[in-house]
Amino acid sequence: MSMINYASREINCKIVYYGPGLGGKTTNLEHVYSKVNPDTRGKMISLATETDRTLFFDFLPIDLGSIRGFKTRFHLYTVPGQVYYNASRKLILKGVDGIIFVSDSQSDRAEANIESMHNLYENLEGYGYDLSELPFAIQYNKRDLPDVLPVSDLRAQLNPNEVPDFEAVAIRGEGVFETLQAVSKLVVKSLS
């Protein structure tokens, strides 16, 4: 849930990148960080585990304007991709304002995508959140690789509610900002 900082006249919103291990969550965050004006972003923080890491940073997008005289600052987080870090994944979702699910388009990763989506629903339910009421988008990443599933198959597996979805090649920055902008606008709209 958004936090209001009256001293700095900012509304702080949390967007979480969720998805299977090695799907491209970190690559998305690193691309956004590299392109955001250094004067409007915080430091990139990495919390490492033995085999995975959680990244986060905050930034103040100039192009989204203000809400009732308050600027909107976004805090972007990734969750560890491995399900055995579920306690960390769940904790990072606490207070979430928007979610980007980064799926891996490779056909051999279909099961991991579905498992991770089910895990997202379970973890949100633990906080009493309903994904249908949160700003949410899905990114079909790694579209440049061989043996990817057709987008229609990915939609059938992951997007039955027809939330905004985007094709991406995060390593080249394709689709990264489009996905983030869609969720950011939905978060701002939910605050208005």
Overview of the structural elements:
The chain is an alpha/beta fold. The chain has a single domain, classed as P-loop containing nucleotide triphosphate hydrolases (Rossmann fold), CATH 3.40.50.300. Helices cover 31% and strands 26% of the residues. It has helices at residues 25-35, 86-93, 110-126, 151-158, 176-191; strands spanning 3-5, 10-18, 45-48, 53-59, 66-67, 70-78, 98-104, 136-141, 165-167. A hairpin with a 2-residue loop joins strand 5 (66-67) and strand 6 (70-78). Helix 2 crosses helix 3. The mean pLDDT is 90.
Average pLDDT, all residues: 90
- The CATH superfamily is identified as P-loop containing nucleotide triphosphate hydrolases
Alpha-carbon distance between the termini?
A: 14 Å
- Could you say which structural class the secondary elements and strand pairing correspond to? alpha/beta
Summarize the biggest pleated sheet: 9 strands, mixed
Radius of gyration: 16 Å
Task: Using brief descriptors, characterize the structure shown.
26% strand, 192 residues, globular, 5 helices, alpha/beta, 9 strands, Rossmann fold
Concise description?
The chain contains five helices and nine strands. The chain is α/β, with parallel strands linked by helices and 192 residues long.
Topology (SSEs and partners):
Blueprint: E1 3-5, E2 10-18, H1 25-35, E3 45-48, E4 53-59, E5 66-67, E6 70-78, H2 86-93, E7 98-104, H3 110-126, E8 136-141, H4 151-158, E9 165-167, H5 176-191
Parallel strand pairs: 2-6, 2-7, 7-8, 8-9
Antiparallel strand pairs: 1-2, 3-4, 4-6, 5-6
Helix pairs in contact: 2-3
